[in-house]
C-alpha cells in the first residue's frame, strides 16, 4: 500500500465530524418555550353558570308525516304517528349554550313520493327566533344546529 492508511482514515473521520456539526445544529429540536402564568387570566372572573330557559319549538310540514320524532340531547321532545296534522309544537326547558343546540328531526311518509319540506322554528325565552328548513322525498333525517349568541348566558 502506498501512503499511510491510518492517516487517511483519520482525515476522513475528521472531515465527517466537521460536516456533521452543522447538520446536528440544523436538525436539532428547539426546546419548548417557557410558559409563564398570565396575570390577566388569574384576575378574570369565572363564567356565570348557564341557566335553563324555556324554548318553544314548532315544526311545520308541507305534507302530514306518517311518523316523526324530534329529539334534543337524546330525549324525544315531539313525536307523532299517523296524524293528519301539518303543525306540531312544544315547550321544553333546556340550557342554550353559546355553542348552540342540536335537534334531530326524523320523519317518514309511506305513500307520498312528492318532495316535502319541513320548517323548524326555535323561539328562546327572550323572544328571539331561529328557523331552519329541510327538504326530502320519502324520508327526512337531519341534525339541525341552532347556534347560540356569544356572550349571552
Question: What does it look like?
Answer:
The chain has a four-stranded antiparallel sheet with strand order 4-1-6-7, with no helix packed on it. The chain has a four-stranded antiparallel sheet with strand order 3-2-5-8, with no helix packed on it. By secondary structure, the protein is an alpha+beta fold. Strand 6 (116-123) and strand 7 form a beta hairpin. The mean pLDDT is 83. It has helices spanning 5-27, 39-43, and strands at residues 53-61, 67-72, 75-81, 87-94, 101-108, 116-123, 129-136, 139-146. 18% of the residues lie in helices and 41% in strands.
Q: Short description, anyone?
A:
The chain has 153 residues and is α+β, with helices and mostly antiparallel strands. It contains 2 helices and 8 strands.
Topology of this protein?
Elements lengths: L4 H23 L11 H5 L9 E9 L5 E6 L2 E7 L5 E8 L6 E8 L7 E8 L5 E8 L2 E8 L7
Antiparallel strand pairs: 1-4, 1-6, 2-3, 2-5, 5-8, 6-7
Amino acid at each position: 500500500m502506498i501512503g499511510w492508511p491510518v492517516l487517511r482514515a483519520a482525515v476522513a473521520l475528521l472531515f465527517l465530524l466537521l460536516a456533521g456539526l452543522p447538520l446536528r445544529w440544523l436538525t436539532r429540536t428547539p426546546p419548548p418555550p417557557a410558559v409563564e402564568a398570565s396575570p390577566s387570566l388569574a384576575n378574570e372572573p369565572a363564567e356565570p353558570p348557564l341557566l335553563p330557559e324555556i324554548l318553544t319549538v314548532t315544526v311545520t310540514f308541507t305534507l302530514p308525516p306518517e311518523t316523526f320524532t324530534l329529539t334534543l340531547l337524546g330525549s324525544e321532545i315531539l313525536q307523532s304517528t299517523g296524524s293528519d296534522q301539518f303543525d306540531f309544537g312544544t315547550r321544553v326547558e333546556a340550557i342554550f349554550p353559546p355553542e348552540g343546540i342540536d335537534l334531530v328531526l326524523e320523519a317518514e311518509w309511506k305513500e307520498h313520493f312528492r318532495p316535502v319540506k319541513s320548517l323548524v322554528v326555535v323561539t328562546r325565552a327572550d323572544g328571539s327566533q331561529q328557523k331552519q328548513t329541510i327538504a326530502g322525498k320519502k324520508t327526512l333525517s337531519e341534525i339541525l344546529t341552532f347556534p347560540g349568541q356569544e356572550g349571552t348566558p
